[in-house]
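Board notes (copied after class):
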Amino acid sequence: MSRMKVAARLMLMLSLVLTLGLAGCGGSKTGGGGGGGSGGGARRGKAVSEEDKARLDEAKVAAEAAERKLSELRQERIRLESEGAGE
């Protein structure tokens, strides 16, 4: 029963990380579109403001942390599944 609770919590955390990661990819506050070349990036001829650079750096750090957490959760899930299969 305890392992089932741990597995359920891991799956919940995994889904939250994925949801937050996907929600963070939606674009800017001004509705400038997302990635994929749909006009969300900096345009030629315009300098990127320091505020935008800071936000981009912050988003990169958050995305890297989310990816690390996701990797850890996947490893933990695999470990728990292998322990459950060994019983």
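Comment from the instructor: The chain is about 70% helix and 0% strand. The first helix runs from residue 2 to 23.
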